[in-house]
Automatic annotation (TrEMBL):
This is Regulator. It holds the Pfam family HD_5. Keywords: Hydrolase, Phosphoprotein. It comes from Halarcobacter bivalviorum. Transmembrane segments: none annotated.
Amino acid sequence: MLQMKSELSLLNELNVLYVEDDKYIQEELEFFLSGKVKSLTIASNGQEGLEAYKNNQIDLIITDIQMPKMNGLEMSRKIREINKDAKIIITTAFNDTEYLMEAIKLNLGNYLTKPLDLNYLIEIMIESAKNILLEKENRRILNTFEQYKSVVDERSIVSKTDINGIITYINKPFEEISGYTVSELIGKSHNIIRHEDTPIEVFEDMWQTILAKKVWQGKIKNKKKNGDYYIVDTIIKPIVNIDGEIEEFIALRNDITELEMSKEYFKHRNEKTSTNLKESIRVAKTYKDIVDKSNMIIRIDLDRNITFVNDAFCEVSGYSKDELIGKPYAMLKDSNVTMEEYQTEINAMFDAMDGKRVLRRKLANRAKDGSTFYCKAISYPLVDKNGEISEYMGVRHDITDIEKLHKELEDTQRELIYRLGEVGETRSKETGNHVKRVANYSKLLAKHYGLSKEEENHLFSASPMHDIGKVGIPDNVLNKPGKLDEKEWEIMRTHSEIGYEILKNSARPILKAAAIVSYTHHEKWDGTGYPKGLKGKDIHIFGRITAIADVFDALGSDRVYKKAWPLEQILDYFKEQKGKHFDPTLVDIFLENLDEFLEIRDKYKDNFGKNS
């Protein structure tokens, strides 16, 4: 009941158009829907309905077929010409084959006969609402992507290539600096702009790095269409899909031609013995000014206190110079990193510089407002005339926008996996947060068990699909409130094999992992589980982990056949089933780290009861 009340609230987001010529039926349904939907527009025939659709922001249409002036099917046809994805529910008092075939041609999947079963109508409307709201969310995400892309396009020289180095996209700044047009570059190898002065070893290192799914950073000298050259500070990032396979490469560049020319000028001038001291100072100052204006600069003393920041650093971080200079560098620690993790990383960084090494890396720091900003950083030690390190200097370039874009892409892919996992859960009236909790429980258990980071991430992505096979289980079995009989239980048990059959033929690592999880998460340590009756370590570790995550969440949640168990009863159950249902080692790990599992449960708790 709570679930239905929560789902009814979805209708509050819908603008509904109801088209019906029978005044009695019209008034009856108008009374029924009033207060349940965001807005309800009424029309008495197809012509009025079409005009109402054009003049209002309509999400869902409910229409009769036989009406004067224009029937419901003709109106639906014209609406689909305006919006091919319009959601339409057909109602009719005539179970006519001709009408049904016409509705099928128009791809109108919801065809209801009168008198209307209002409860069934509500179910259909709720399912439509879920799809409509998901489409709206997808449009919002796409709009966000476009805005991020616009920001990046304005600030950087951007190109994309396929896995073979063939150019698939360039932005306007790329055209301007290279002298080529889009049509001259799309479909061409990136070698078209390669300058002969750039050593082949640079490109070999670049390809070796990005094919290993790592970010490459460095300076590249390129050739313009007219033969001139330009130099760019470049970062190339492999874009991977949810299975961890490279889809394409995106490169962001900053023009540093003038900076490099100044450095060369400075170098050559100082090589001449006749160089005037004042001129050298002037050139050095010019060089410093160029570096200062085009990059974020920070200097740190041997005690790791900040001794200098430039205006660009203050602009990105939000701090003033007075708020930073003299303060410990640790004040910039990213709030998403623990102090232990930070100390390990920062000690390694300074130890490397103490060895007089130059470091190139991506850094995450905390801004004054608490947000995280990301930089591509070059850090190196400054030495005095005796060769002793006097302080450390960092030159950084702000890449926060591209990091946000990448995170948005990863979050969207993760959301799509959760949506897929929710297909089975929604049919069994379970909540979307169930799959999120199972995913996070599984990842935590995998981490403490000692699986590799890659295995941990594969399981995190795969475990939400553990019950995808429930799409093949009939509703009368799946949602039966009481105990299943022997025949029904036999049907229910097939969901693990159904899920395996759906996923097993994929070449994608995550979907392969999902097939294993679906197939094995109902096996038991003592061999009494299903579908194969596997025993002990013959059960894949992914299945053994997901079994604990799924049962822990199921016992602590309301289901159609039971109420949630108290925590103490759940823990007693796991202790009793240790070595029977569950891997005893995993049970020990689970109980030893119970507080972390409870934190996840609290973070993703079901909240639909608040709206009931």
